[in-house]
Each structure stands twice: as structure tokens, then as C-alpha cells.
Design brief:
This protein is mostly helical. It has one domain. It has five helices and no strands.
Length: 103
């Protein structure tokens, strides 16, 4: 579903690798809003992909909870790509209420 890894520019991919595998260097310059947003989105996409792969190995009784976690991760990905406006955020938080992610 997500093919971001095939289309990520090398600077974004390097930023993801540094973020995940390497300790930050101090003082660290801010990468810029666009780069930070792309890095966060790429991290989310890879996390969602790994979560979906993991879901395949779970017993059916645990699948519903994991599906809800994947939905929440996708909401974080969407927010990383474009921050929610106030009404979207309120609707999203309401949908995340206990039992609200089941649909």
C-alpha cells in the first residue's frame, strides 16, 4: 500500500537511518521543517509496514487490538505528512476513544 521507500530521496533516507540507528550529534542543527516532516512520515510508513508484517504472525484473538494500533499509527503518519486542523484533530481524537477505532 505504501511505496514511500522506493521514492524517498537519499537525504530523507539517510535522516531516517541516523534517527533510528545512530545517536544524535551535538550540537545538532535543525534539518528544516520539510525534511523533518518527510523523515517522520518515512519512519511511520516503515513502522506501519513492519506492524502489518507482524500482524500476519499473530493468533486471530490478538488481531483486532493490533489492527487498532496500526490504524493509530496511520493517523500519526497522516499528521506527520500534514498536521491536522482543529476540527480534524477533534474528530480524530473522538474516533480514538475506547472502542472508536473498531469501525
Amino acid at each position: 500500500m505504501y511505496s514511500v521507500a522506493a521514492h524517498v530521496d537519499s537525504n530523507i533516507l539517510r535522516s531516517v537511518i541516523e534517527h533510528v540507528f545512530m545517536p544524535p550529534e551535538l550540537p545538532q542543527a535543525h534539518p528544516g521543517n520539510r525534511t523533518e516532516s518527510k523523515t517522520n512520515e518515512a519512519l511511520c510508513v516503515n513502522l506501519i509496514r513492519a506492524a502489518r508484517d507482524f500482524l500476519q504472525s499473530l493468533p486471530p484473538s490478538q488481531s483486532p487490538s493490533w489492527v487498532n494500533m496500526i490504524k493509530m499509527m496511520d493517523l500519526v503518519r497522516r499528521a506527520a505528512k500534514a498536521p491536522f486542523k482543529e476540527d480534524e484533530l477533534l474528530r480524530t481524537l473522538s474516533d480514538m476513544a475506547t472502542g472508536g477505532m473498531d469501525s
